[in-house]
Sequence to fold (839 residues):
Amino acid sequence: MPHDHHQTSGLPELLAPAGSPEALAAAVAAGADAVYLAGRRFGARHYAANFSDEELESAIGYAHLHGVRVYVTVNVLVRDAELPDVARYLLHLYEIGTDAVLVQDIGVAALAREIVPDLTLHASTQMAIHNREGVARAAREGFSRVVLARELTLSEIEDIAADAGARGIGLEVFAHGALCYCYSGQCLLSSAIGGRSGNRGMCAQPCRKPYRLVTAETDEYGRPKDLRTVPGEDRYLLSTRDLSVYPRLDVLVRAPIASLKIEGRMRSVEYVATVTAIYRRALDAIAAGEDWSPSREDMRDLALAFNREFTEGYIFGARDIMARDRPGNRGVPLGTVTGYDRRRREAAVRLTDDLMPRSGDGLAFCIDDPDRDTGAVVRGTPAVRSGMVQLSVPAPVSVGARVFLTKSADLEDRAKRIVEKPLQPVPLDVTAVWEEGTPSLEAVVDLQGSEPLRVRYRPDLAMEPARSRPLTKEQIAEQLTKTGGTPFAIRNLTLHYPGGLFAPLGELNRIRRTFLDKVEEAVLAARRPGEGAVRAARERAGAAIAALERPASAPRNPRVPSVAVYTGTLEETEAAVRGGARTVYLEVSAPGILKEAAGVCREGGADLVWKWPSITRRTFLDAAVPLLPSLYDAGVRGVMVSGLGAADAVRRAEPRMALYGAAGLNLWNHRAAAELAPLFLRCTASPELPADDLAGLAARAGDTLELEVLVQGNVEAMVTEDRLAAAVAGEEFLGLQDGRNRVFPLRSDSEGRTYIANAVETCLIDHLPRIAGMGIDAVAIDARGRGPRYAGDMTRLYREGLDAVARGETRVLPALKDEVKRRALGGITGGHFVRGIEE
Fold:
């Protein structure tokens, strides 16, 4: 396994975003140890500028010449049809010297291990790794670093680092920037609403939209009736603050963390320069042993760069994660409006701090409703008299409105100076020796983390004995030390010059330029694989691509799937079994209910599977794992999990338990299926897969893993640590209502975590013939929270539909669809199976 990079200073690496070539230059200039960026495909920030293949090669060369590592994101979920292009892309990244790739899809990781085993792999935060079992699994799968879920606390991170299975793997955490409301990689809300998938880098940020919290009693099918709005002033119920651990850096540098990551590939060049420089200065001061403390000026500059108010985040146990009053940039408070002159269109503002507006600044005049904020740009630096200033505003503003500085011309000027400051040159120790009039040059370059590099050059220059004015050692030294326009500076020059020789100065300049070009080529080549390694990788890639492009050798035979049902109560379980379910996924925490349900399932000819929450942190695992042997003995035949760490915990504690994979595993392609097959009996295909891609997955996956498709229910679209649902306890129904009056059901798990479901039910009953034709083993209905009537009726309807498919009598399916629709919450949709996702 390629090793993780650690700083020689003992500090964690400072990792900066580079959404464009300009942002890359800013990050390097500001002192980043490494940058992360993406090509034009397969990166999780589709709307950033990103890099073409040629730009990527140039970017990596530029960064390497200045001692900065480059990590390329390949952190999206990938269809089977895209795997050949992913293979080609991974080969290209390897050839151009990429220091590591960040990966979400376990199928892509497997492909990388096959084609380019020397290419360092980092597990993206999109993999939602959140326990020590998950980190240990990543280490065994060849990852050298894990970007941990943002929701973990520092004590959890320390616990993970202390685990034997995680030794040798680097742990990366987010230090600054935007926070996702949902666990990364588990969010389907953007794709459910509008087809733009966060798992494909196209998140439309529905979490920054306004919602109302609503409650209601429910009917016999678990649907809300007579919605009531929960009183509250806040409208942006899913909008988080921005993370900033800057005030606690002195604590984090002592933690077992390999890398501190700044979020912001969609942010400006000035943002990247400002934030990176502030964190760099702080880390350097701590490393130097200074009595460092956070500075007020730095905190203000971080806020001016961009903020939605700051939180120290889950990592420090902060409770102020949410910013529900407004979703956008807050800037920095400037003052309060005391009056408005309509004729002159000027607001009188009383300043509240020592911050003074200047020409070019951006302002926001804010009242309680963000939709009615007024923006303005300062034209000319206004005079300040007795703490008051007159500011031009294009629209009337109310007395008492708060004024914020949202764009600082001064900060942008300082950021530009950071970017324009000459970079520290790479020092060279050069020795020149003359043999028979010809100089031989050797440069020694110190390369980070490896042996010094020696570059030798013998030019085609034979210096002649001088007739009158031989070149002096000083003249030769002056020519050889001119390094302007290159990334180098001659630190030491040793000349073994016999004297008495002559050559035109232009010739000395020529050989110096050629020599420095060769040094640059050698420095870059030292960070790239050798010719033999590239040749072998190309052969492996060719074989892999040929296999990926061949038709499936043993496609699945058509079959009539069995029915599986997700339930949340014993009563729902009983109804599902009576309706004909052959597998029940029961999500409860009480072992007594599980044992009773196991008896119900056994009598009805069904298997009971304990459905674990999507997120299984230490407290849950420590409570759940010891129960497994007795539950198996009581008839619980399997456990359904959403993460590989949880799967390993089950397998280690009770090997007899069958493992079932939930949709949270993000199964998109057959290479991922091959990785899951040794561990799981059955896995759920991603509900984001269109029908054609699902068919492709099924055709190539073979029969080593049972495949299941979610065909009915409000698909789980988010899981979050925000206690939004638990905070309003005791209601039959709780939901979020958006601006189009769609209602997204909420529920909480045994630990209080909130789950948000799609507002419309998926219904694929009329597509059962095609699903059966693909060879899918089971179809699943999500009846959690919908009551026994829903669970029983939906199971019966799908059982009737499958029986009709088996008999070839598909004409009954439209009538069954009508029956489903009459019981659905929010209407029905064919979802991504029918409409696909936006590309």
User: Anything to note?
Assistant: The chain has a mean pLDDT of 94. The radius of gyration is 31 Å.
